[in-house]
Amino acid sequence: MEDVESRFLHLLQPIRDLTKNWEVDVAAQLGEYLEEVRQSFHPRRPG
Fold first, then answer.
1. Could you tell me the pTM of the whole model?
2. Which residues belong to any copy of the Condensin II complex subunit H2 N-terminal domain (predicted)?
3. Domain segments of the chain as ranges
4. For 31, which of 10, 11, 23, 47 is 20 to 30 Å away at the CA?
């Protein structure tokens, strides 16, 4: 199996690189967005 993988490594590597772009913590991103939206409707007052 390693022989086959090494033969096609140059073809598989770009695909692996693309999948890294999709490794996003969606819950964290949505949480940050929700906090920004909340602050836009209820800005914090200094003091």
1. 0.47
2. 6-39
3. 2-41
4. 47
